[in-house]
From TrEMBL:
SMART domains membership: FA58C, LamG
Residues annotated as domain F5/8 type C: 1-112
One cellular component term from this protein's GO annotations in UniProt: membrane
Gene designation: Cntnap4_0
Membrane-topology descriptor: Single-pass type I membrane protein
CDD domains: FA58C (cd00057), LamG (cd00110)
Localization (cell): Membrane
Source organism superkingdom: Eukaryota
UniProt protein name: CNTP4 protein
Keyword ATP-binding on entry: no
Keywords attached to this entry: EGF-like domain, Membrane, Signal, Transmembrane, Transmembrane helix
Pfam families tied to this protein: F5_F8_type_C, Laminin_G_2
């Protein structure tokens, strides 16, 4: 009714779902109780989804976050999210409410349109980006992207050199593995490779973010806000790599000694290499 949302039965199985119409970056939420009533929610969970079927709970400080709600029907309780949510659907799930009333909520959602470039891979394809040597910075390489998939294995990123040097980002049994390999172990007898693994259960059909920063002999590997730092000896400053990157697979299968060699089946979003929007380039060219 006009006073807000109040379900017929007040129990912990009730929820209020909002369809924002498109993926939106949500930065804050606010709640009130039911207008002119003794109905208000004192704590709640927040869930979000792209499809309206596959849901994820908002987490903060490494745990599912229970939001503090209202103490009366009229005061507005505003909460700025510690990290924004990118989603089309939201669910407010009441946990507790006024003992002398029922579940009652009025809500406001704050945010803005989320701009993104998305590309789908069918497990048989890959996207190859060849770039101009003159545009390269010798000091730093930065690659960032988001991905979602239901497959537990697949190549996300590969770059190779003439002498067997290569960098491969691969999903293996739901975990991300970053392999940096110096192919010629005679020339580089020590620190012949770096193999870093981060994340788990990343094949859950939710978006996960990846950031790889390689400058001089320092490698930073970040998956969903968890970062692994690696400081190698000087050899890694001199990786001999071609001016070509492949996303979603390896163009010539079997060329490198990767573990599964399976092409990626799922979606990538906002692939950037040193500030270049790769998906946008692919669409326009």
């Amino acid at each position: 009714g006009a006073g807000g949302w109040s379900p017929l039965v007040s129990n912990k199985y009730q929820w209020l779902q909002i369809d924002l119409g498109e993926r939106t970056e949500i930065t804050a939420v606010a709640t009130q109780g039911g207008y002119g009533s003794s109905d208000w929610v004192t704590s709640y969970f927040l869930m979000f989804s792209d499809s309206g079927q596959n849901w994820k709970q908002y987490r903060q400080e490494e745990s599912i976050w229970a939001f503090s709600g209202n103490t009366n029907a009229d005061s507005v309780v505003y909460y700025k999210l510690q990290h924004s949510i990118k989603a089309r659907f939201l669910r407010f799930v009441p946990l507790d409410w006024n003992l002398n009333g029922r579940i009652g909520m009025r809500i406001e959602v704050y945010g803005c349109t989320y701009r993104s470039e998305v590309v789908g891979f069918d497990g048989k394809s890959c996207l190859i980006y060849t770039f101009n040597q003159k545009l390269m910075s010798a000091l730093k390489d930065v690659i960032s992207l988001k991905f979602k998939t239901m497959q537990s294995d697949g190549i996300l990123l590969h770059r190779e050199g003439q002498n067997g040097d290569h960098i491969t980002l691969e999903l293996i049994k739901g975990k991300l593995s970053l392999l940096i390999n110096l192919g010629d172990t005679k020339t580089h007898p020590s620190n012949a490779q770096i193999n870093m693994t981060l994340g788990s259960l990343l094949d859950d059909q939710h978006w996960h973010s990846v950031l790889i920063e390689h400058f001089n002999n320092q490698v930073n590997f970040t998956v969903d806000k968890h970062t692994h730092h690696f400081h190698a000896k000087g050899e890694f400053s001199y990786l001999d790599l071609d001016y070509e990157l492949s996303f979603g697979g390896i163009p010539a299968p079997g060329k490198s000694g990767t573990l599964s060699r399976r092409n990626f089946h799922g979606c990538f979003e906002n692939i950037y290499y040193n500030g270049v929007n790769i998906i946008d380039l692919a669409r326009r060219r």
